[in-house]
Specification:
Layout: H1 3-19, H2 24-38, H3 43-55, H4 59-69, H5 75-91, H6 103-115, H7 127-130, E1 133-141, E2 148-153, H8 168-172, H9 175-180, H10 197-206, E3 220-221, E4 224-225, E5 227-232, H11 234-239, H12 243-247, H13 254-261, E6 269-275, E7 282-288
Antiparallel strand pairs: 1-2, 3-4, 5-6, 6-7
């Protein structure tokens, strides 16, 4: 493949991405192209790969690759390296645009969680992906049960005692909340409309929380609390095909809807994505740093 063909394909994909404001199909196509370029040793393909990384906000990957292949005597290259270096230092690849998952990929995630022995959390179905749990090769000792665990909790836990490590099992069983008189979510910082006290008990005592800029808040819909899916901005919502859906929410006025449209994941205004367990509707909560 000649260089103009690499570049031609990128320009076409970029155009589609811009025109659709990063809809799911355009993001998947960019990821497929990224993976194709990553397998190619042609330097010309690597030069286009820098652009693909940059567009998808893999800032550290773009910077590292440009350092390897770029001409440091070229002023344009030096200028771009300077810009990417700032982003790479502040963001890394942490805020890269996620690739929309297929049904098969979602099923594989569930299977992996089962293989790891991770309990199923109704209101927080992917706690490894959201960062609520992290894996440790060395293992840590759970403060609740005293056993070694290779997966431990990193989210908020409100208790009198200072708790460092909790294993997934002690959270799922409610033993951690019972033993330390704690909770993972403030019971006042939740949507109205859920009448079943057992559902509130499950949410605050047996569900991993998430980390917000301010007080974490949990959305509800169809008479039940929603599942927390992760941290997003407008680009992520467009990539999931959920932006217009979350804007169709009477909670937000026009000014707030515009703020959601302009939000950036990891920015001054952070959005938190939820999904109704019954009808599938997506909703967000947002706050400022």
């Amino acid at each position: 493949m000649a260089m103009n063909e690499y570049l031609k394909q990128y320009i076409e994909l970029q155009k589609k991405f811009r025109e659709t404001e990063g809809n799911p199909d355009s993001v998947r196509a960019l990821y497929d192209f990224k993976e194709e370029l990553e397998q190619c040793e042609d330097k010309r393909a690597k030069e286009v790969l820098v652009d693909v990384y940059d567009l998808l906000d893999y800032k550290k990957s773009a910077y590292d690759l440009l350092c390897q292949i770029g001409d440091c005597a070229d002023r344009k290259t030096l200028k771009r390296l300077g810009t990417l270096k700032d982003y790479a230092g502040n963001w890394g690849d942490h805020y890269a645009l996620p690739k929309p998952k297929t049904s098969e990929e979602k099923q594989k995630e569930k299977e992996r969680q089962v293989q790891l022995g991770l309990p199923a959390f109704r209101y927080h179905p992917n706690p490894l992906e959201t960062g609520a749990f992290v894996e440790s090769a060395e293992g840590v000792i759970c403060d609740c049960c005293g056993k070694s665990t290779h997966i431990y909790y990193t989210g908020p836990f409100f208790s009198v005692e200072d708790i460092e490590y909790l294993c997934p099992e002690c959270i799922a069983s409610g033993e951690a909340a019972r033993k330390f008189g704690g909770s993972f979510q403030d019971d006042y910082s939740v949507d109205d409309g859920v009448d079943d006290p057992e559902k509130l008990d499950e949410l605050i005592h047996r569900t991993p929380g998430y980390c917000g800029w301010q007080q974490e808040y949990w959305r509800a819909h169809c008479g039940d609390y929603c599942a927390f899916l992760g941290y997003v901005g407008a680009r992520e919502l467009r990539a999931l095909g959920a932006l217009e859906e979350v804007l169709d929410d009477s909670l937000w006025d026009q000014e707030q809807k515009e703020m959601i449209r302009e939000s950036v994941n990891g920015g001054h205004l952070q959005c938190y994505l939820f999904q109704c367990l019954h009808c599938g509707k997506h909703l967000v909560w947002m706050d400022f740093d």
